[in-house]
Design a protein that fits this description.
This protein is α/β, with parallel strands linked by helices. Helices cover 34% and strands 19% of the residues. It has an eight-stranded parallel beta sheet with strand order 1-8-7-6-5-4-3-2. The structure holds D-xylitol-5-phosphate and zinc ion (ZN).
């Protein structure tokens, strides 16, 4: 499949969120990447349900919600009501991951699992058939604008191999430090979806930057 682009609204101008959502609507982006942080799982707090709902009101593309929160189960239903189309939880934040994945699907969303840079791809072996998405973190989660961790490329290759070997339908997304250089290497390694925050929103022309990422 041609790769997808999921701009991260974490780097948008929150005083002009509707404008930035419309920019993404009118660009060649495929999804909205929405980063929710709780200040516990990661050393940062981003935003919660009111902001997700506000994005949903204007978004004309699917909401790809990345939860960087402890114990996500208790909030799954509310994220469904807030308009999440894909809900991704962290492997490191879930004690009963299989149950969490089923709960996400039972609430009508696609289910994703994210792995931190230090977490081995092998932990996905027993859930890969249940997943709609795997998110490989290429920075330590918590902040936009960090440097890409090169070792991620081999994890992307390993994940792609696991997906192919098992016949899983999961798409492979990568998040953190993505630009046209790292993005091209990630696509070569097997990534299906690229998340990009600061590279898009700090550029002179975000619409063009999304197109640059899309047309690599
Ligand atoms: C980091 C978030 C990312 C972040 C990426 O914890 O999950 O989605 O917005 O930002 P950039 O593209 O600037 O690395
Ligand atoms: Zn993210």
């Amino acid at each position: 499949m041609p790769h997808l682009i999921s701009p991260s609204v974490l780097s948008c101008d929150f005083a002009n969120i509707q404008r930035d959502v419309e920019m993404i609507n009118n660009s060649s982006a495929d999804w909205f990447h929405v980063d929710v942080m709780d200040g516990v799982f990661v050393p940062n707090i981003s935003f919660g349900f009111p902001v997700v709902k506000a994005i949903k009101r204007h978004a004309k593309k699917p909401l790809d919600v990345h939860l960087m929160i402890e114990n996500p189960d208790q909030y799954v239903e509310e994220f469904a009501k807030s308009g999440a189309d894909i809900l991704t939880v962290h492997y490191e934040a879930c004690r009963h991951l299989h149950r969490t994945i089923q709960l996400i699907k039972a609430n009508g969303m696609k289910a994703g699992v994210a792995l931190n840079p230090h977490t081995s791809v092998s932990v996905l072996e027993d859930v890969i058939m249940d997943l709609d998405l795997v998110l490989i973190m290429s920075v330590n989660p918590g902040f936009g604008g960090q440097k890409f961790i090169q070792h991620t490329l081999s994890k992307v290759e390993q994940t792609k191999a696991l997906i192919s070997k098992t016949g899983s339908n999961a798409v492979l997304e990568v998040d953190g430090g993505v630009n046209t250089t790292t993005g091209a290497a990630l696509i070569k390694a097997g990534a299906d979806v690229l998340v990009a925050g600061s590279f898009v929103f700090n550029s002179e022309n975000p619409t063009q930057t999304i197109l640059d990422l899309k047309s690599m």
